[in-house]
Amino acid sequence: MAKIGSGTTPTATTTTSLTTSTGVVSFGTPVTFTASVTGASPTGSVVFYDGSTLLQSVALVSTQAILTTSTLAAGTHSITARYTGDTENLPSVSAPVAVTVNAYPTVSLTSPANNAYFIAPATINLIAQADVTGGSVSKVEFYRGTNLLATVTSSPYVFSGTNVQVGKYSFTAKATSTAGLVTTSTPVTIAVLSAPVISLNNLVNGAVIADDNLTVTGQVKAPANSSISINGIVGSIGSDGRFFVNNVPLVPGANTLTITITTPDGKLTTQTIQVTSSAKAPFVFSASPTEGLAPLTVNFTLMNRNNVAFARIELSCLGDGTITRTLTAPSLALGACTYTTPGLYKAKMRVINAQKQVIYTSYQAINVKSASDQDAMLQNVYYSMLAQLKVKNINGALNYVTGGVRDKYNSAFTAMQTSLPTIVDQLGTLQNGVLGGDMAEYVVVRNQGGANKAFLLYLIRGEDGIWRIDGM
User: Fold this and answer.
1) How many Cβ atoms from other residues are within 10 Å of residue 209's Cβ?
2) Residues 73-85: pLDDT tens digits?
3) Which residue among 350, 373, 449, 452 is the one 20 to 30 A from 119 at the CA level?
4) Which residues of the chain form CATH 3.10.450.50?
5) pLDDT at 77 (0 to 100)
6) Would you give the DSSP letter of residue 185?
């Protein structure tokens, strides 16, 4: 006889069976599991598990517990249902039920950038990145509007469109997984111009400058990785098209400023402006470096060419009127400013005499680059070369290598010309970039004989301000 208060010991044997609404489901789509328990009118609850991970406890209703979920991660799952028992019925566990959750592919157009500019007749290299968690990509399709341009079945997913005329265009990439799931990228809109466009902020033709040293700023519409120079002094172009050229020297009297845009394929566009220098400035304000990756520390100096007496020097790192530091000592080392946020800045300096009069004002422009933007631009150099090789355009591909290795790669590409499309598919993808101010290094991972092997790729920024491949 059981002791008073001990309750009844369950003796009825139970069985728990589990069914699923589907064995294969797309990620985010609901799947329903139904657990059925037989025994002596079982009550209580059923606990559903994904392997050893508890999903949810569900009360039995008329010997069934039903769980509907859309939170299963991509991959294969082993689901079980565990009946917990009651005062009459013993616990039991179902046999596992397998469910495969197929993930939708991810896809993005990494090149061209949205709102990028090209020059007609343009070659536009479309570069996509696509992946599937727990699966693989079967193809990537490139579209201009609703028109299919190309289908690529293996990485790297690149396509080169040629002879594109003046106009605005919208491109997308559509990735399809081996499970048949499809994802379309965010559209990228670009404009093809007849020529680069240069707009100046602080200069008009015929301007008179009371200085012999000039910083020029403005806006350009030109292809990515283009460069700007004025009378041979190379400047910097920001990701939004704003540019500057610091410390352009002027001679006394009339000066012709020749502003040159150089595109990655070596084409030049020039614009000239006439200015007059009316005075030699007593000071020269300078900065180093004037561009680089965030966080960027820039050192500022001031040269007092005429030993002019002054009371103090004020430096504003942001050029917004906020004084970063004031110097009263004769030392003209103005110290450093550190810029943590990417963007274009104007550091402003002014010299004040004992009568509290501003006797000289100047500024230096600084381009603080985003590492992600720089990485995307540099990877575009490599994949753009591949896009040209894939269509056997050797001359187009050579635009992306430096002059020092051009002959070597010309010979190599020419020798492989008939097989270039196949070879490109085997060259591998970029990983683990190390970025510097004028040099970058990437690891190219390539599958050879069933094993992944790593090779190094080097890019440098040339004297013309354009990034190209210098070795691989």
Assistant:
1) 18
2) 988 999 999 999 9
3) 373
4) 371-471
5) 96
6) P
Residue 296 CA to residue 342 CA, distance in Å, equals: 9
Phi, then psi, of 441 in degrees rounded to 5: -130, 135
Between CA 89 and CA 94, with CA 91 as vertex, the angle to 5 degrees is 125
Tokens 């090779």 belong to residue: 455
H helix or E strand, kind and range, residue 395: helix 394-398
List the structure tokens of 247. Answer: 């410390």
CB 277 within 8 A of CB 250: yes
In this predicted structure, what is the pLDDT of residue 243?
95
H helices within 66-166, ranges in order?
none
What is the rounded CA–CA span in Å between residue 444 and residue 379?
11
Find the mean pLDDT for residues 404-414.
93
Q: Is the pLDDT of residue 266 over 90?
A: no
In whole angstroms, what is the distance from residue 110 CA to residue 376 CA? 7
Does domain 281-369 correspond to CATH entry 2.60.40.10?
A: yes
One of 3.40.50.170, 1.10.1740.10, 3.10.450.50, 3.40.1280.10 is the CATH number of 371-471, namely 3.10.450.50
CATH 2.60.40.10 domain residues, the chain: 15-102, 106-193, 281-369
Global model pTM greater than 0.85: no
* Residue 5: per-residue pLDDT: 42
User: What's 106-193's CATH class?
Assistant: mainly beta
Position 460 scores a pLDDT of: 96
Q: 31: Cβ–Cβ under 8 A, 6 or more apart, which residues?
A: 20, 21, 22, 25, 68, 69, 70, 72, 99, 101
Architecture category of domain 15-102 in CATH: Sandwich (2.60)
**Cα dihedral across residues 107, 113, 115, 119: positive or negative:** negative
Read off the pLDDT of residues 98-114 as tens digits, 9 standing for 90 and up.
Answer: 999 999 999 999 889 99
**In Å, how far from its chain's centre is CA 439?**
18
Contact 316, 324 (CB under 8 A): yes
